[in-house]
Design brief:
3-stranded mixed beta sheet, 5-stranded antiparallel beta sheet, 6 helices, single chain, alpha+beta
């Protein structure tokens, strides 16, 4: 939903460019796997062998299906999340923390109970739509479901944290024309 429109614009501007794309929630190491370019959501590790260019950011949204909220109730504050079913994304078998603004407007990471731990973002959303609990994902992925009334935003005043979106590549490939385009 985000990467392909950007890539198609690049392809339109550079018709000689050929695209080989793979989409996965798995974080790959572009140096080890010989990949020219990755598009990555979230914070980046501090590495000298990787270069990055910010492409934008988007708000992290907390939501659940109306059926779940009717049954479990709507959380009124961050502490209430501990008493809810939570569908968390995972990377390398570890649950991703959720990020919110605290009362002072600072970013706060919390580790809600991992009722369901899933390594695929689309499955996280599908489970939330099906009423299995709360999830936090980038707004672009949730907005179509919110617009269709399949999901309802929860604690919107606390969900104002922006998640970065970056192009990432090995520094050794920085001079390749196909990478410089980005």
């Amino acid at each position: 939903r985000i990467a392909m429109p950007i890539l198609m614009d690049i392809l339109r501007s550079h018709p000689g460019l050929r695209l080989e794309a793979s989409f996965s929630d798995r974080v790959i190491d572009p140096v080890e796997e010989g990949v020219d370019l990755c598009l990555r959501f979230g914070e980046l590790p501090d590495r000298t062998d990787i270069a990055a260019r910010p492409l934008g950011s988007q708000r992290l949204v907390l939501c659940a299906a109306p059926s779940y909220l009717n049954e479990a109730g709507k959380p009124q504050n961050l502490h209430d999340l501990q008493n809810h079913a939570c569908i968390l994304g995972s990377r390398l078998g570890r649950a991703a923390s959720w990020r919110f603004l605290d009362e002072a407007g600072r970013v706060k990471s919390i580790d809600p109970p991992a009722t369901h731990l899933v390594s695929d973002g689309e499955v996280v959303i599908d489970m939330a739509v099906a009423g299995f609990g709360l999830c936090q994902m980038p707004q672009s992925l949730l907005q179509p479901h919110i617009d269709q009334k399949e999901l309802v935003e929860v604690l919107p005043d606390r969900c104002q944290v922006q998640s970065p979106f970056n192009a990432v590549w090995p520094v050794t490939r920085a001079m390749l024309p196909r990478v410089r385009i980005v």
